[in-house]
Structure formats: structure tokens, C-alpha cells
Specification:
6-stranded parallel beta sheet, alpha/beta, homodimer, 52% helix, 13% strand, elongated, 3-stranded mixed beta sheet, 6-phosphogluconate dehydrogenase C-terminal fold, Rossmann fold
Chain lengths: 292, 292
């Protein structure tokens, strides 16, 4: 049971955690904190939070659990604002899409790795954003990755894990570096390809015509190119090393495909397409239960 | 009104044309032709066709309209089988995803460009295939591109155009080369990226784990990697020149993105992502009516 929860950044991710914990009866008082006053007023009116402040230091003053759900580029500022203002027993966790940069930001602000910081990442979201899109069931049957460090207090880790389980999520642990590699492959690279594809087409001389003839497959494929540009700039910068490695691997694959097409090597093309289809079909079957 | 329609290749595309024309009362007798006997028997049982033969020459013998909907790699064989067997007034059209190779195959089989050949391409499909997936409304409010040549008989062109309009489609004309460029950009390149991405992930050492953490965005993005590998091998080989050009353009875009990430140029990344999001949002808004 969390007595006082502070949510820094009351959008889809932070608001959904508040709603889920409330629905589970797992939280007492919820204070919201953010920069935009109208958003905080809306969150209060919707009953997502009990009260709000625009000052992070004030938000965390009496909290036993703090959840930070701001864009990666704003993490450092939040850590700076709350360092030295926490209760001794307070646990801090976050929802950032990259974990290495969050840990570095915390070290820069606190001067060391805070033992009661539990870096985390709920693998959930919808194409909508903002507190109005927050859902009590957003995390049900979704994965949450926590990336504890050697310095992490096991009690703090257990409490964060329990918090997510009360929201219906399945929690798994991995190292910070491994998290950032896995997400570079499954999320960051696909987003870069979608942005890159749509921009390539937009730059063609006949771009209006081209988009007219793009059918259903293209619509699905390019959906993630409608994601928030600022958030994705921050992710690319925060996860530079792992994203660069994945871009190089993908580049080698596409060079191989382009060479096969140039030399009309149908056998090699068929091998690649068949292997990709098998992986995709196996993967979709294997995770059917998560798509509902 | 078509008196005798011959459909060579009775799958999703061919079967849906038969169903749509029947529903519109725009066709008399429909003969199906294909290599797999069980599929033809199923098409007959479903009422998609009135009778069938496995011999293309026999199928076209009395037909006034012939629709060829076989994989691109099988086009040449069909043209060889029907050359010299057509009624003088018979019109031939097709549903191939690449038009340059279809015209070359026809020239190779007929010895010249048949004036009553109208190359065409319905921009439609579902993730399913086969005659059981055929729908009378598959082409409603979808685009069909016809690519007449200087040699094409205007009466034949008008009749093919009318046939598709009776199915509820919107028909547009473009040159063979332009069609192949537009489709390389909007369909062939995205499919190659999806195959390439899924194969890149499948080849990672920890591929099982990676796919476990792939969330909703990845599922949408990679759906087209479940497409038929043989069909896509044929398309890549048939449209080598235009696909190679688009792969090179996309490669340059990704090199630019990778360089920006390496040198942490957030401003340039934001420019690209913002332009891509604007194009995607404009495109989705602009074609809302087609997605229903």
C-alpha cells in the first residue's frame, strides 16, 4: 500500500498509473506535478489526482513513492529539483524509454546512485497522449521492465515490482544496458524506419501523388511516424550507442537485400523473405494473448 | 456487359473481381482457370465461377474479357499459353503489381504489344489470400491503375475501365514506368523494410527475447512481413530498377539519420521527425474516406 504517491508528469503514462492504483485500492493520496497548469487542473477534475503543485520539491516532500513520467530530456531537471527533498524512506521510479540516460541524470543530480531509485519502463501506450487518454487498465497484461543496479535497495525494488503487479502488469528484470539494447531493436529502430520512410516519400518531387496511392499496408507500416517528434528526438539522443549499433546492423541487411535485387538473386531474396515471415508468424502466434 | 469472362488465377484478386461483377449484374458466364484442381473445385462450390478448366487456351477460347491474376513469375507462361487462341475481339487485362514486366512478357509471347491488352493494377487486398477470402466489395472505393500504351485500343481501354467502375473502383491512368516508380515507393519499399527489419531481429543472438518485448507499434509496423515470400520475390525481380532507386534514396535518408544520431544533432533529428509526422498526419487526414 502506497500512502502518498507523487506523479511528476501527469500524462498518459503517469495518469494511467494513478488510475490503476486507485482502482486497485493500492494508494492513499495522489499528488500530481507538472509544468502546464491547465493539464493539472484537468487531471484534478477527472479525479486522476487528489491535488497538485507545479513545484517538484513540494510534490515529493511527504511522498513515500515517486513516479517520474516526463520526456527523457526533462529527467535531469526533475532530479535536480527533488535531490535533497526526499523523505528518507521515499522510493523513486520512472517510466523513461531509455534507462542508461536516466541513471546518468540521477547520478549527476544526486552525486551518487540513489539506492532507493528503481529505474523502470512500462511497455505500454496508445497512439493518444495526455491525461485525458489515461486508462485504469493500460498496464493490464503488459510488461514492465525494471533495471535495478548493484546499489539498488532490494526492499525498494520489491515495492516497485508490487506496485506494477497491482496494476495487472508482468514485471521482468534486466540490466540497464540490456534494456537499452532490446528497446533499440524492438522500438527505437522501427520508429526511425517509419520516420525515415515517410520523410523519403515526402521529399519525392511527386510526393502528393505518391501518398494518394499508398494503400492499407503502408498505413499500418507508417502509423508510428505520427509519434511525438520531441519525445523521439530525446530517445535517439539518450540511447545513441545502442540505436547506432542497430542502425548499422539494419543497414547491412538492407545492403544485402539491395545487392540481391541488383544481381537478380531470387533464391537469396526468397530465403530472407521466408525467414522473416516465419519469425513474424511465430512471434504473432506466441504473443496472441498480449494483443487483446 | 461482359458475356464470357475468363479468370486465370482464381485467388483473392481474381475471385473478388468475379464476385463483384456478378453482384453488379455485369457479367454472364464466368470460367475459372488455374493449376490447382482443389482450388478450382472450391471456387465452383462457392459460386465464384460457373465452370473451370486447367487449360488456359481452353479458358480463353470463347471469352470476350480475360483477367489474369497470377503471380508475376507465372505471367509469361499464361501469355505463351493463350497467344493465338484469343477471339479477335477479346480484351486481356491483368492484376499484376508491376506493369513493365507484364508488358515485356506479353511482347515476348505475342511478338508485339497486343492492342487489346490493357495492363492494370487494383490497389486492394487483405492479409488473407485464396478464393475463400474473395469479397464482392473488395474493390469498392479502391483505386485501380491502368497503364495503357500508345498501341492500346481505346475501346479496349474504355471497357476495362468500365469493368472496374462496375466493381465500385476509381480508375486512374498512368504510364507503365510511372506506375512502377510510384508502387516502388509506396508498396515495394515498405515491404522490403518490414522483411529486412524482422530478419535483422530474427538474426540477433537473443532473438526470442527481443520479440517478447516488441509492443503494439512493432506489431503494426511488421505486419506486412507476413506477406507471401514468393509473390514478393517476383515483385522485387520484376521491378528491379525502380526498387533499386528507391532503396538508394531510403539508404541516403537513413545514413543522414544515423550521422545525426552519432553527432547528437538533436535539431536535425527534430526537423526530420517533424516533417515526417506532418506528412503522415496530412496523408491520413487526406485519405480518411478510403480507410473505412
Amino acid at each position: 500500500m502506497i500512502e502518498r504517491l507523487a506523479i511528476i508528469g501527469v500524462g498518459l503514462i503517469g495518469g494511467s498509473l494513478a488510475r490503476a492504483l486507485r482502482a486497485a485500492g493500492a494508494v492513499g493520496d495522489i499528488v500530481g506535478c507538472g509544468r502546464a497548469l491547465p493539464n493539472l487542473e484537468r487531471a484534478l477534475a477527472l479525479g486522476v489526482i487528489d491535488r497538485f503543485t507545479q513545484n517538484p520539491a513540494e510534490a515529493v516532500a511527504n511522498a513515500d513513492m515517486i513516479f517520474i513520467a516526463v520526456p527523457l530530456g526533462a529527467m535531469r531537471g526533475v532530479f535536480d529539483a527533488i535531490a535533497g527533498r526526499l523523505q528518507p524512506e521515499a522510493i523513486v521510479t520512472d517510466g523513461g524509454s531509455v534507462k542508461g540516460s536516466v541513471v546518468l541524470d540521477a547520478v549527476a543530480a544526486f552525486g551518487h546512485i540513489p539506492p532507493r531509485l528503481v529505474p523502470g519502463h512500462p511497455i505500454a501506450g496508445t497512439e493518444h497522449s495526455g491525461v485525458e487518454a489515461a486508462l485504469a487498465n493500460l498496464y493490464q497484461q503488459r510488461r514492465v521492465i525494471v533495471t535495478p543496479l548493484p546499489e539498488t535497495d532490494p526492499v525498494a525494488l520489491a515495492r516497485v515490482q508490487m506496485m506494477w503487479e497491482r496494476c495487472g502488469a508482468e514485471v521482468t528484470q534486466m540490466s540497464v544496458a540490456h534494456h537499452d539494447e532490446v528497446l533499440a531493436a524492438t522500438s527505437h529502430l522501427p520508429h526511425l524506419l517509419a520516420f525515415g520512410l515517410v520523410d523519403t516519400l515526402a521529399r519525392l518531387r511527386e510526393n502528393d501523388e505518391v501518398f494518394q496511392y499508398a494503400a492499407g499496408g503502408f498505413r499500418d507500416f507508417s502509423r508510428i511516424a505520427s509519434s511525438n517528434p520531441v519525445m523521439w528526438r530525446d530517445i535517439c539522443l539518450a540511447n545513441r550507442a545502442a540505436v547506432s549499433t542497430m542502425l548499422a546492423r539494419f543497414g547491412a541487411e538492407m545492403t544485402d537485400l539491395a545487392d540481391s535485387i541488383r544481381r537478380a538473386d531470387g533464391e537469396h531474396l526468397l530465403d530472407i523473405f521466408t525467414r522473416a515471415k516465419a519469425a513474424r508468424d511465430r512471434y504473432v502466434d506466441g504473443t496472441k494473448d498480449e494483443t487483446a
